[in-house]
Write a structure and sequence with these properties.
Elements: H1 26-29, H2 39-49, H3 59-76, H4 83-97, E1 108-112, E2 119-122, E3 126-130, H5 131-136, H6 140-155, H7 165-179, H8 181-186, H9 200-216, H10 222-236, H11 243-248, H12 252-259, H13 272-284, H14 288-301, H15 306-318, H16 322-334, H17 338-357, H18 366-407, H19 425-447, H20 453-456, H21 467-480, H22 490-495, H23 499-542, H24 554-599, H25 606-620, H26 627-632, H27 637-650, H28 654-664, H29 668-674, H30 679-694, H31 697-700, H32 712-715
Parallel strand pairs: 1-3
Antiparallel strand pairs: 2-3
Helix pairs in contact: 2-3, 3-7, 4-6, 6-9, 6-10, 10-12, 13-14, 13-15, 14-15, 15-16, 16-17, 18-21, 18-23, 19-23, 19-24, 21-23, 21-24, 23-24, 24-27, 24-30, 25-27, 27-28, 27-29, 27-30, 28-29
């Protein structure tokens, strides 16, 4: 989307020039909505700590500046509060920060509600990760590469190695503009003094440090390369979601070229023993495809490596190859030390024991089941037509709102020359403007874009298939495919009992897509109405007088208060309505992922199901429910995954969540929604579990045109 600044500008507000503002004073002396809030505290702090060059800044002074900036960011942004998602990000960050050199810096990380793929760091250990980036990464290791990179900026003091107080001010104001919500949504990136000001050399240094950090913390250094490769694919596709990242960071291909020269990524320096350790680490974190790939490489060099065979047997089991797993384990049992042989025989015995415990699944009538799937597919096509029509209307509404915002560009008064005193009426007005901006940006984030209802539900129009509608259509296609095979594969027959529950989930997803678009449209209608009142308020504010004390007169403030409160309330209501639409949208995404997990066939045998239990235990501290309970209660592996995630989020148990679903007649995902769990983190974690089984490094590095984004030979893949 085209973004422009919504700025503060007026002609009747006079005051001394502020030479440090630089780009802020251009174009009618603009000021981003939130910059004025902590201006005095920042100025006084800088005067106290910056008589010498900024490079000599003490750690304590750096932390204080970072805290001041953090207050701005939190005041003007929506920060994700979901406990499970924050624990996940904090856990990865904590593993990295255990390895840092600057032990006197109190590192922290926050998740910013923004669907752009981006991240950044400020002074004093503050790291911020956009929701869009968390939704984008393919693994814990890729997220670790991002946090490691941002930590590198802090460790190397890139943010504060400037030559003058003026440069620090420009950087602070630039950072503030990033998080002034209206500015961030519609601002001209070239004018904001963004983190792109960090030099290319600093970015390369941050990559280097992050690579070392994640390697020491036990994360796969190659994931930094796969992350860059994924970004490069989006760059080649001109995807808007990555445009902000590319403004703030160098070209991914150039960064990969530098990364490939570092020893952590040089396959010639990696010993078989080190590769085996990395494969074991992948397996411990349920990255089964990566583990299998590395173990195959180890066995190419040393076919008699009993340790590699032992681990490979476990990975093959997880990937749905129990017979091959037994063969591999049998090879391990013939080789190696007595301890290795004992471990292999123990695993073989466990596999055979699980086979004897396997419960015969109910075999539905294939013709009737095929007819049920086909009928559901037809119903989806009909629903898609209505959903897409309403989405098209929503796109028109979104354009109208954006157009109205453009007309407000020069109506926001300029407060940059006013000495904003704590407790003053001007400060109260700025705080209310900040609240309006935050609500407006939140509403726009939750309504439009590829991960929001308007734009995200997509289309089934020929040659334009996209979004959630296409995902459901693809799932129906995969469900129907086995019926065309003669005979129907045994592994497909084993999944058939889960089909009725899967159809129910997809049907519910269709309803949620429709309601999410309607909620987004209602929010846009509220926004459209609110912008008229905001326009009136800004015009009133533009004519308010500033006394010699630097404050608005009591009479003017009293006159402004009713319209100001009305704008705040209306924009808050629009944001709430939009968030409800986003919740419905992400519930639909979670249901689709539940079906995707079930289609992996993890419920077809106790052996395969045990690998899912292991993955859930590693991620959420609970293995879900046992195999017999899953079958007895008519659950799918997707249901068990959802129940485990919901239980971890609301601090319950999977058994309790499942019992509540049965007693209320709801689905597991509905129970999470009833407990007010944010559906976006639920979708994120469902996706991570799915990727544990499908995360193919070769496929991921392949561009849309079929070429490889990275030379796999250089990675040893």
């Amino acid at each position: 989307m085209t973004r422009k600044f919504l700025t503060l500008s007026t002609s009747n507000t006079q005051g001394p020039a502020v030479p440090w503002l630089g780009y802020v004073t251009q174009r009618k002396t603009k000021l981003m909505l939130r910059r004025a809030i902590p201006l005095l505290s920042i100025l006084s702090l800088l005067c106290a700590i910056c008589p010498a060059p900024a490079g000599a800044m003490s750690t304590q002074a750096e932390i204080e500046l970072g805290q001041a900036e953090d207050q701005q960011i939190v005041a003007g942004s929506v920060i994700e509060t979901d406990p499970l998602l924050n624990a996940y990000v904090q856990g990865i960050a904590g593993n990295l920060w255990n390895q840092v050199a600057r032990k006197d810096v109190p590192y922290s990380v926050k998740i910013v509600k923004d669907n752009q793929i981006n991240s950044f760091a400020t002074m004093g250990g503050f790291v911020y990760i956009n929701e869009g980036l968390i939704d984008f990464v393919q693994s814990d290791d890729e997220l670790a590469s991002v946090i490691g990179h941002e930590t590198g900026h802090i460790e190397r003091r890139h943010v504060i190695t400037t030559n003058s107080k003026a440069e620090i001010l420009n950087l602070l104001f630039g950072l503030a503009s990033i998080f002034s919500p209206i500015i961030y949504e519609f601002g001209g990136l070239a004018e904001a003094g963004l983190m792109a000001k960090v030099s290319r050399e600093d970015e390369i240094q941050a990559d280097r440090y992050g690579l070392q950090l994640m390697s020491r913390a036990g994360y796969d250094p190659e994931s930094m390369v796969t992350m860059m490769a994924h970004l490069g694919v989006l760059q080649d596709e001109h995807d808007d979601a990555v445009s902000k990242y590319l403004q703030d960071h160098p070209d991914p291909a150039a960064r990969v070229a530098h990364l490939m020269g570092y020893p952590e990524l040089d396959p010639t320096t990696v010993t078989a023993a080190e590769e085996l350790v990395q494969a074991s680490s992948d397996e411990e974190r349920a990255r089964y495809d990566f583990a299998r790939l590395r173990l195959d490489q180890v066995l190419e060099k040393d076919p008699n490596s009993s340790e590699a065979l032992l681990d490979l047997g476990q990975s093959e089991l997880a990937l749905g190859l129990p017979n091959r797993s037994q063969q591999t384990l049998a090879e391990a049992a013939q080789l190696g030390s007595p301890a290795t042989r004992a471990a292999a025989n123990q695993r073989i015995a466990a596999l055979r024991q699980m086979e004897t415990q396997e419960v015969t699944l109910t075999r539905p009538d294939p013709p009737n089941l095929q007819a049920a799937v086909a009928a559901a597919q037809t119903a989806h096509l009909q629903a898609a037509s209505e959903i897409q029509a309403r989405e098209d209307e929503g796109k028109d509404q979104l354009k109208s709102v954006q157009s109205r915002l453009d007309t407000l560009e020069y109506e926001v008064p300029d407060l940059s020359n006013i000495n904003i005193r704590r407790g003053s009426r001007v400060e109260a007005i700025v705080k209310n403007l900040t609240s309006m901006a935050r609500s407006l940006n939140s509403a726009l984030q939750d309504t439009g874009g590829s991960t929001s209802p308007i734009g995200g539900v997509g289309s089934l129009e020929k040659s334009k298939e996209s979004g959630l509608l296409k995902e459901s259509a693809d799932i129906y296609g995969e469900m129907l495919a086995p019926f065309a095979m003669k005979p129907v594969p045994t592994e497909s027959m084993a999944i058939f009992p889960s089909y009725p529950a899967m159809i129910d989930e997809l049907s519910l997803a269709d309803g949620e897509m429709l309601r999410s678009v309607d909620a987004a449209r209602a929010a846009l209608t509220q926004l459209d109405q609110s912008l008229g009142d905001l326009d009136d308020f800004l015009k009133e504010l533009d004519h308010a007088s500033i006394g010699y004390s630097g404050d608005i007169s009591p009479s003017d403030y009293m006159a402004l208060t009713p319209s100001m409160k009305k704008c705040v309330d209306q924009l808050n209501a629009a944001a709430t309505q939009a968030s409800q639409g986003a919740q419905l949208f992400n519930l639909a995404r979670s249901r689709q992922l539940s079906d995707r997990i079930t289609l992996l066939g993890l419920g077809t045998s106790p052996e395969l199901y045990s690998t899912l239990q292991y993955a859930l235990q590693q991620r959420f501290g609970s293995s879900g429910v046992d195999y017999r309970t899953m079958l007895r209660d008519g659950l799918t592996p997707g249901d068990v995954t959802a129940a485990t995630i919901v239980a971890a989020d609301i601090k319950s148990t999977p058994e309790s969540v499942i019992a509540e679903a049965k007693s209320s007649g709801q689905s597991i995902i509905d129970v999470g929604n009833a407990h007010k769990m944010h559906a976006w983190p639920l979708e994120i974690f469902m996706g991570l579990v799915y990727l544990d089984y499908t995360d193919d490094p070769v496929r991921e590095l392949r561009k849309a045109d079929g070429t490889l984004a990275v030379d796999l030979g250089k990675l040893g893949l």
